[in-house]
Amino acid sequence: MPGPGRDEDRFTRADAYIADRFAAEDDALRAALESAETRGYPDIHVSPVQGRFLSLLTGLTGARMVLEVGTFVGYSTIWLARALRDDGHLHTLELMASQAELAADNMARAGVSDRVTIHQGPAARTLKNKAEEWVGLFDLVFLDANKNDYPAYLDAITPLIRAGGLLLADNVVRDGKVLTPAPDDPNALGAAAFNDALAAHPAYESVVLQQVGAKGWDGLAIARKRA
Ligand code: DHB
Ligand code: MG
Question: Which atom of ligand 1 is nearest to 144's Cα?
């Protein structure tokens, strides 16, 4: 009987099958994961397969300027930074000083320090401070920070994306919790409000793709800013 548990197991094994073939990690990516595990941080990085997908989208858009909201220890940052054009740069925003420091080490190990700037502090504050300097600058934005503030981040990020640029947002399905978010679940509430705002937003053509695998059941929002 293929109950939910069985399905999850099959999705995870198929994800590993895909990762083995399409998303091999090098020492620097593995070390980034270990740096978080050693400190007892939760395993909330993107999966290798999701990392490869971020890398592909970065290449497809020919991205030179990328913004990431929510660095954590920089696992997704490495995938994104390595896919930038040679003259490209990535700005990534992280609230926690300890994680930003770890991310800096991880960027160095991955050989991408020169193309990555880590901005430590509340993302809302950094976005406000940079609102003028960064207007229309980014070819691609990856939103992966605290989910309760996703709607506010959408407002702050939209002017920073160039016409035709790409917005990606992680964790917008959350085990299906966005369908009927519990009143005491700020993450699901934030993701659900973000999805509604994005779907209705005149500046974007967008969709949400469900994902299953190593990270359970979740989804990625993909939105193109209209020209
Ligand atoms: C959480 C955050 C993430 O960015 C993620 O991919 C998975 C989980 C979390 O905070 O629970
Ligand atoms: Mg995430």
Answer: 4
